[in-house]
Structure formats: structure tokens, C-alpha cells
Design goal:
Length: about 375
């Protein structure tokens, strides 16, 4: 019964493995969501918004106070100047922003360059928008960007856009300035729109997050996407945004108005209340997650796994001898832990066949218990 645009995408890997965790009672280090709340001020602001009657449709573009706070955030953190009326569109999470961008920009048969492993929603959204993907792969252990391969993928009469994610899920890579310069040059050379997913912008431990839009000649061709979910540990709120030049944001808006129109009004108010006063929170969150990363990586190493230490995000990958998907399917029964096979994020899963992704956005006791279970000898 499912339309051909969705054929082959099946059930998301996160749904599958979170269900496996539920079924087996295993510790869920698969789907990336924190097990602690974000700042109390955020939660209080959402409650206050509900109590004070902010419970009806938001304006299509988003609650004005949130749009103003997003502009202020982009200016303060990155020196990007935006007009809150024309250059910002609030969405149901980064996911809707990306889907609306593709739906608003692509003609049937247009091609989009993805850098694999890529977040699972990208390929599906390209297909929903009638597009086709062209992929370039980052490979372990160093996840180096092959600029020549990227240039080749970007060349072609139907290539319209490049979808980048930095900091990057699932590798934990932060694209370097030199890599971003090379990507920017390719976008300019081939006149591509760049869609840059920066939801992990404040979860960086090593290296520096550079928004693609800040590079020469890139603001006018870049849509920057982010959301409250990762920055404030509220992944269930699904409050995100796309920012950029009015023409590109207009394309997002044109599609978004007929997807969901507007919503999440109290969460938008809460985001407005905290985005502006949050620099201390950003540092605290990154510090906490750095400790959790180190804790999990040490635990995985102690369990005899070959760990690829991430620079950012919620995730660390390990290299296993056999097939990562099989490893992940057996793991709950074998030792009561759920992880995600990173191969699922590649158009060609064989490239990521030996990779397994573990989330570390969990309390220290949970990470320690998972590590203890992983270190248990087989069959014990
Ligand atoms: N992009 C990336 C790279 C992600 O890892 C995620 C997962 N949360 C999202 C987008 C989705 O963001 P949101 O929940 O704001 O839709
Ligand atoms: N971004 C989260 C992850 O990569 C999952 C989001 C989802 O469930 N779609 O684990």
C-alpha cells in the first residue's frame, strides 16, 4: 500500500532498536535522547506559557519572540545578521525544516548530494520531494572527506542541493574549516543550495563548530537548520528552525505551511525565554557530555572494543570484527545493551558494515552499567 517514494525506507532504525530495548529490557544506548531534563528555566517557561494561554496556533513563521531570539543567537554566536520576518522559519524540529526545504526547492528528478553516513531522514525526505540522492562516503577510522569524490558527485545537470550535517551524526565528526571551505567552493562552482543541519552546534568537545553560512559567498545559498532538542535536552519538543536568505526561507515556508502550518506554541515561547541567556548552559552541557563521552569510550575500550573517539554529538562508534547489524541484533540478549548499526546510515551499508554506534547522553550510572555488561565474557 505504501507509495513508491517511500519504498525501501521501511521502519526507522531508531524505532526498530528502541522497540528491541523495550522488549528485552536492555539499556538503550541506541536512539539518541538524553535521560535528564534540560535547564529548569526552560521547563518553567513552557509551563508558564501553557498556564498563561499560549495554547493556540502560532503565526506561520513562528512566535515573534522566538524568531527574535534565533536572530540574536545567530548574531551573538556566529556574527550572522538575519531579519526575523523574512530570514527565519520555525518548524516542527529540524526534521521538518529539512523536509520542507527539500519539498520547497526540488523539482522532480533533481539530485541532492549527501555525505554518508547520513541521518536517516535525509534520504527519505529527498525521495518524498521527488529527488534522487548522490552520495559520498566518510570512512572509518578518520572520517576524512574525499573532496574529489564530492566534486564528482556535485557535477551534473540535475544536482540542485548539498545536504551537510556538522557536527555530524552518526560519526561525531566536526567538519574542519578547510573541509568546509572545500565544500563551499564546490557549492559555488556548481551553483548548489546548501542545507546545513547544525542541531549539534553546541555539543562540541574538540574542534570548533563553523556554520557553513559564515564562509565567503555562502550566506546567500545556505539554509541553516537547528532545533532546541539537542541544545536543551528536549528532543520530544520538536521545535526547530531554518534560517538564511529570504528567498530560501520562503521556499521552506511555502512547503511548511501545508505540512503542519504552525504549532508547538508553548515550546516556542520557552525557547524564546532561554536561547538568549544560555551561553553558560551551552558550556555546562558540553562539559557534561564531554565527561560522558570519556566515560563511555573508556568503558567500551575496557570491554575490548576498538573505539573511534568522537569530537562532538551524543555518539561514539566502535569497529567490530563481524557484521555490525548482527552484533546489534545479538547484543540485547547477549549482554542487555542496545546499540545502532551504523551501516544503516549509508546508501551502501557494506561501507559501514563493521561500525556500531553507542549513545552517551545518559546518566553516569547508566553508562557504567552498560560498560560493565559489555565487558562480561560471552555466555557469562
Ligand atoms: N538532524 C540530525 C543530524 C539528528 O541527529 C537529529 C536527531 N535528533 C535531527 C536532525 C532531528 O532533529 P529534531 O528532533 O529537531 O527534528
Ligand atoms: N537523532 C536521534 C539519533 O540519531 C534519533 C532521532 C529519531 O528517533 N528519529 O539517535
Amino acid at each position: 500500500m505504501i507509495a513508491s517514494r517511500l519504498a525501501g525506507f521501511g521502519t526507522t532504525i531508531f524505532t526498530e532498536f528502541s522497540a528491541l530495548a523495550e522488549r528485552t529490557g536492555a539499556i538503550n544506548l541506541g536512539q539518541g535522547f538524553p535521560d535528564e531534563d534540560g535547564p529548569a528555566a526552560l521547563l518553567e517557561a513552557a509551563s508558564e506559557a501553557i498556564r498563561s494561554g499560549a495554547n493556540q496556533y502560532a503565526p506561520l513563521a513562528g512566535v515573534p519572540a522566538l524568531r527574535a531570539a534565533i536572530c540574536e543567537h545567530q548574531r551573538r554566536c556566529y556574527g550572522i545578521e538575519l531579519d526575523p520576518d523574512t530570514d527565519v522559519q520555525v518548524t516542527f524540529g529540524a526534521t521538518e525544516a529539512i523536509a520542507a526545504a527539500l519539498l520547497g526547492l526540488l523539482e522532480p528528478g533533481d539530485e541532492v548530494v549527501l555525505i554518508d553516513p547520513s541521518y536517516d531522514a535525509y534520504a527519505a525526505a529527498v525521495s518524498l520531494a521527488g529527488g534522487l540522492r548522490r552520495t559520498v562516503a566518510l570512512r572509518p577510522p578518520d572520517w576524512r572527506l574525499d573532496v574529489d569524490a564530492l566534486r564528482a558527485a556535485a557535477a551534473g545537470p540535475r544536482v540542485r542541493a548539498l545536504l551537510l550535517n556538522t557536527p555530524h551524526n552518526p560519526t561525531g565528526k566536526v567538519f574542519s574549516r578547510a573541509e568546509l571551505e572545500a565544500i563551499a567552493a564546490i557549492c559555488r562552482e556548481h551553483d548548489l543550495v546548501a542545507i546545513c543541519d547544525e542541531v549539534y552546534e553546541h555539543l562540541v568537545f574538540d574542534g570548533e563548530h563553523v556554520p557553513l553560512a559564515t564562509l565567503d559567498g555562502m550566506f546567500e545559498r545556505t539554509l541553516t537548520v537547528s532545533s532546541l532538542g539537542k541544545t536543551f535536552s528536549c528532543t520530544g519538543w520538536k521545535t526547530g528552525w531554518a534560517t538564511g536568505p529570504a528567498g530560501l526561507v520562503g521556499a521552506v515556508r511555502a512547503a511548511k505551511q501545508y505540512l503542519s502550518f504552525a504549532g508547538g506554541t508553548p515550546f516556542q515561547h520557552a525557547g524564546a525565554a532561554v536561547l538568549g541567556m544560555a551561553d553558560g548552559w551551552f558550556d555546562e552541557l558540553a562539559g557534561t557530555l564531554r565527561e560522558r563521552r570519556d566515560r563511555l569510550c573508556a568503558g567500551l575500550e575496557a570491554a575490548g572494543l576498538e573505539v573511534l573517539v568522537p569530537q562532538a554529538t551524543y555518539f561514539a562508534n566502535v569497529l567490530v570484527d563481524g557484521d555490525g547489524a548482527e552484533f546489534c541484533r545479538e547484543l540485547p540478549e547477549r549482554c542487555g545493551v542496545v546499540a545502532i548499526p551504523t551501516g544503516a546510515f549509508y546508501a551502501d551499508p557494506s561501507i559501514g558494515r563493521h561500525l556500531v554506534r553507542f549513545a552517551f547522553c545518559k546518566r553516569p550510572g547508566v553508562i557504567d552499567e552498560a560498560a560493565r555488561r559489555l565487558a562480561r565474557p560471552k555466555g557469562a
